[in-house]
Amino acid sequence: MKRAVRALTAHRPRPLSSLVLALTLVAGGFAAWTGQDWYRAAHDDRAAYAAQRDEALAAGEQAVQNLNTLDHRDLKQGLDLWESSTTGELHEQLASGRAEFAEQVKAAKTVTTARVLSGAVTELDDRAGRARVLIALRVTVGASDGAKTDKDSRMLGELTRTGGRWKLSALGQAPVGGAPTG
Amino acid sequence: MTPTRLLRGGGRPGNESSGNEPSADATDATDATDATEVTDTTDAANEADATDTTDAANEADGVRARRPPGGRLRRAALAVTAAVLVLGGCGFLHGAHQLKSAESARNRALTDTEATTRVAGEVGNALARVFSYTPDGTAATERSARTALGGRAARQYRELFDRVRDDLTGQRVTLSTRAVRTGVIELDGDRARLLVFLDQTSRRGKDEATTAAAQLTVTARLENGRWRIVDLKAR
Where are the domains of chain A? Predict the structure, then answer.
């Protein structure tokens, strides 16, 4: 019997409820729209590529600076940093020539510091994990007698991504008077 | 709860099957953050309606003027859902804005290959033109500098050229500049920053030519469809 009574009261129009319901639907639509907008932004290939570009540049600048920094009083730490900043062929070269190089620097008693003036990525293959960078660098060499000399150099670096981190796999001076490229 | 639940608008009191219909919990509705839950809310509202009507029926028959307390509950549930959805939407909006306006995403260097190649090419060519001259052709160089340079770069260039113009002609200096490597650091709409490695070959009279390296950071601005260099800084 309850049902019969209920049926009478149930079917009353309630403008306020309809309004609230309509508002809820509108809110739902809003949330759905913004949600998919956010999802698209979060899964944007371009943004991921841009993030890789910036990571590669930051890692490249840091690695080039590391490889141009060495204090004869703290060779172990300096050369460890060289090795941890590099990978591939460059890493092997540095590792194999380490002892000899350490002797030379110890004898020369030099302190070398470097500052990156500017850097840019010229190529990036984020699938293969390869990138090329240009770095303008100022290297300051402090000799054992306290004299300091500045030298500006322009470097071309190649980076390879290993284990999610970008590391230098090749580094050289940009040749002067050579063939023009990129 | 007794199986007295009826769907709203169920004007058919004998319909037993409606009582067995699965329906969401009222609490579910308040937790709902997803747009798809909106329909659930309606269900929940129906349920809330059903209970309150029973209450109303128990109280007295046909006191229609009085609002059953459950109606308020239902509206409150809807309002809370709406508020949660709006808040969630604002959250998404904010998140999307953060992602899109992040510095790395705004910078189109390399991500927009076409624009990157174009600005690098135009700036490299412009630098080669304005820093190349022959003893008798300085006027032509200055002319091309007027179109390629703007702002601070144009002022710097004029000052420099005013100082050296007579020497250039007097000492028969020829300079040829080539951009050997160009990297786009930043590209954001009509503004770009580049790092350019230049080779500058100069010859004084009949002397041997010498080549020197130069590194510049260049700021360029897109004006009337052309990239114009507005600032130069030697590196």
Answer: 2-38, 48-173
